[in-house]
Amino acid sequence: MKTILASETMEIPEEVTVKVSAKMISVTGPRGTLTRNFKHLNLDFQLQEGGRKLKVDAWFGTRKTMAAIRTAISHVQNLITGVTKGFRYKMRFVYAHFPINASITILRSEKVKDEIVLDGNDIELVSRSAALINQKCHVKNKDIRKFLDGIYVSDKGAIKEE
Predict the structure, then answer these.
(1) Could you tell me if 23 and 41 lie in one domain?
(2) CB 119 within 8 A of CB 32
(3) In this predicted model, what pLDDT tens digit does every residue of 5-39 receive, in sequence order?
(4) Pair (95, 141) in one structural domain
(5) Looking at residue 105, what is its pLDDT?
(6) Tens digits of per-residue pLDDT, 96-149?
(7) Of 20, 55, 84, at which residue does a domain stop?
(8) Are residues 44 and 103 located together in one domain of the fold?
């Protein structure tokens, strides 16, 4: 069954500027600018109330299109969080059998012995980097229940101001 019109709005914080141009959403904040392409989705994006609200519409949408509305709003919220706070992934070295030599040039935490900290504005790039590091250190041909060596994500979220 198709719904004639489904729409959802979201608030935009004061320190953030959002521009919508042909399903390309650009978010500018204190930490920089992030852009996301939504051309593959059959949605309409409109700025309302002087750029303080973003409205997402789907005309004659199916169930997948209705789900895409909330997904698009979540992506824009991640862009806003990225340009205001940023994202941080903390990874820990875990080894029982052999110490792991870190040959990756990323910020290593001085306070904690075996920790890597990944910081950035784009959640997809930061999380993809953490996943690639995890996959690179994966031990093959061993029983994963006993052989837990590797680099794993221990904490993730927005960067907290200290």
Answers:
(1) yes
(2) no
(3) 999 999 999 999 999 999 999 999 999 999 999 99
(4) yes
(5) 38
(6) 654 544 433 366 667 777 888 888 888 888 888 888 888 888 778 888 777 788
(7) 84
(8) no
The per-residue pLDDT for 149 is 82
Q: What does the DSSP 8-state code read for residue 22?
A: T
Count Cβ neighbours within 10 Å for each residue of 92-112 and write b for 16 or more, e otherwise.
bbeeeeeeeeeeeeeeeeeee
Domain count, the chain: 2
- Tokens 């935490």 correspond to 109
Cα 120 from Cα 14, distance rounded (Å): 22
Last residue of a domain, one of 65, 84, 103: 84
Phi, then psi, of 76 in degrees rounded to 5: -65, -40
The answer to whether residue 151 scores a pLDDT higher than 50 is yes
pTM of the model: 0.81
**Residue span of the structural domain in which 62 resides:** 3-84
129 and 79 within one domain: no
CA dist., res. 143 & res. 133, Å (int): 20
| CATH code of the domain in which 47 resides | 3.90.930.12
